[in-house]
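From the methods appendix. Each design record in this collection lists the tokenized structure first, followed by the designed amino acid sequence. Records were kept in a plain field format so they could be parsed without special tools. The example shown here is representative of the layout used throughout.

RECORD:
FOLD TOKENS (385 positions):
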């Protein structure tokens, strides 16, 4: 398999490298051109050894002849190792610690704040279109997604179908993150209907027949496992009455497709539209993360009268509104939400993404083919370059 050059750039010094399983953390680390000591906590023997004696890490580090990159793979498996790492950092031995993980849940509860300011928090996302270059295919991205372990599989559809099952067995069940794995599985199906939509916790709870607090906890589990994220409403200096509920997205369009039930009453166009919006969302998140723009936040905008703009990016020098349409043609009615947003925020840049092939300017709104937008979205460069 040809190696894909990733846009991810590590910070100086020690850092956490989070990312859902299969996004390529281990592959990326293997490309480091430096001396490394790697502790793989997915290895059962290694796990047992360090779970019983976390201080063994200190003994191994003491034997190193010179400053080294020390990789703790899936560190959330043994959060107690963070205490040892913290002590070693205090001693200023000039080692660089790289702490990878596919779940932040245990670390949140077990002292990750001990390293605040000493280890940067970074994330590896699914492939971006520009990383794949000529290997990027829009229809494939919408159907099976861009998670590297799925995208590069010999049978991507089968790999996609097995992906969440792996999480249920190795993360949710094995780590006892929820009491009832069956109820959590029903929750996954129920919340799939909220992908790219306002998240109604009460409605999801009613659908999967559990109480509201349980669903709230399930959503937090999804976020801690990095499988989903919420996008809040953009309310800064609001001039209209806005909704309050956030929108929800699975982290990858293919993963969303794998969990969403299909039946005679499900219109293919509806699922394709939400998958497209999710694909844009995951690219925008990756662009923000890889551009090291911690000041930029991803929002959406929706008035109580129903006027909605899918994405608003707001930062120190950024105010950009983006609408996504799963349509081959654009009409003037399609740009009305963006015009309304620009009326309230004249300093904003607005654009509409659609499935056609030509750049258009309609009522002062730039309309860009979605595939073209994704292919030119490169960290460190402008959104609309």
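DESIGN:
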């Amino acid at each position: 398999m040809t190696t894909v050059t990733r846009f991810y750039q590590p910070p100086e010094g020690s850092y956490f490298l989070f990312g859902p399983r299969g996004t390529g953390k281990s592959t990326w680390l293997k490309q480091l051109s430096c001396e490394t000591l790697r502790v793989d906590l997915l290895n059962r023997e290694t796990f047992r050894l360090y779970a019983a004696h976390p201080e063994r890490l200190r003994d191994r580090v003491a034997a190193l002849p010179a400053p080294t990159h020390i990789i703790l793979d899936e560190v959330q498996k043994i959060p107690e190792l963070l205490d040892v790492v913290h002590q070693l950092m205090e001693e200023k031995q000039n080692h660089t610690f790289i702490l990878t993980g596919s779940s932040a849940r245990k670390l949140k509860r077990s002292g990750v704040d001990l390293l605040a300011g000493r280890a940067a928090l970074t994330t590896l996302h699914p492939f971006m279109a520009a990383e794949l270059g000529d290997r990027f295919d829009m229809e494939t991205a919408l159907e099976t997604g861009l998670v590297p372990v799925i995208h590069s599989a010999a049978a991507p559809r089968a790999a996609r179908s097995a992906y969440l099952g792996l999480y249920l067995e190795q993360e949710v069940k094995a780590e006892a993150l929820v009491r009832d794995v069956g109820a959590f599985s029903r929750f996954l199906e129920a919340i799939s209907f909220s992908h790219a939509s306002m998240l109604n916790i009460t409605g999801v709870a009613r659908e999967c027949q559990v109480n509201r607090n349980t669903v709230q906890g399930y959503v937090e589990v999804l976020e801690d496992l990095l499988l989903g994220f919420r996008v809040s409403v953009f309310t800064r200096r609001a001039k209209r009455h806005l909704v309050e509920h956030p929108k929800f997205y699975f982290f990858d369009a293919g993963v969303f497709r794998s969990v969403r039930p299909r039946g005679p009453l499900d219109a293919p166009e509806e699922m394709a539209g939400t998958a497209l919006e999710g694909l844009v969302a995951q690219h925008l998140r990756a662009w923000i993360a890889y551009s090291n723009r911690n000041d930029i936040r991803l929002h959406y905008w929706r008035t109580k009268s129903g006027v909605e703009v899918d994405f608003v990016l707001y930062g120190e020098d950024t105010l950009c509104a983006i609408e996504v349409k799963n349509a081959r043609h654009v009409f003037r009615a399609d740009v009305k939400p963006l015009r309304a947003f620009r009326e309230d925020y004249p300093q904003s840049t607005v654009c509409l993404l659609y499935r056609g092939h030509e750049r258009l300017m309609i009522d002062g709104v730039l309309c860009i083919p979605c595939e073209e937008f994704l292919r030119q979205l490169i960290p460190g460069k402008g959104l609309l370059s």
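APPENDIX NOTE: The radius of gyration is 22 Å.
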